[in-house]
Amino acid sequence: GESVGLHLPTLSVQEGDNSIINCAYSNSASDYFIWYKQESGKGPQFIIDIRSNMDKRQGQRVTVLLNKTVKHLSLQIAATQPGDSAVYFCAENTGGFKTIFGAGTRLFVKA
Amino acid sequence: EAGVTQSPTHLIKTRGQQATLRCSPISGHTSVYWYQQALGLGLQFLLWYDEGEERNRGNFPPRFSGRQFPNYSSELNVNALELEDSALYLCASSPFGGQSRVHEQFFGPGTRLTVL
Q: Does the beta-carbon distance from A103 to B41 stay under 8 Å?
């Protein structure tokens, strides 16, 4: 979510386990949320999105959960693989074209 | 289909110098967006160019500027570099006319700018 500072939160999981990455968003009026994956040396890659009128959305091996009551977003990755190692960050669209990006969480997958 | 490309990959400058970063959008895309990603912080929107014109800019000082060429490639110029300008600068392109939402943008790998 909104992280200030030089060090990203880190999540380390065993290959094959499920990963849960969390994000606290800032604006209760935000209507659209996105999760991105950013591998080392690459630009952000769109993973999955969810609109504010939904609580859950599933993709291939990924699920996004939205809890508007506490302004919380999570990304669940099933059967985490070494190729999932990356920084994951959320983004919230606060209206129009204004988007706020979180700093992200670094996911390490141990073989 | 080639993606968004950026050059150089890394750039090292000293305080007070100028930096020029380049971006080539995906073929057929007319809009180019620039973002700054400082270490440990989220992406910050810098500039949007479409059809050769600056259409919108984020909350950055005027020493951040750029342009878009007739072939839709773009340059980002940062004058009077400061230490806090050290960051990954990402370029994104979009096929849609008009400002697109971020999920409609395709990102390049970025240029890592280090200011000493």
A: yes
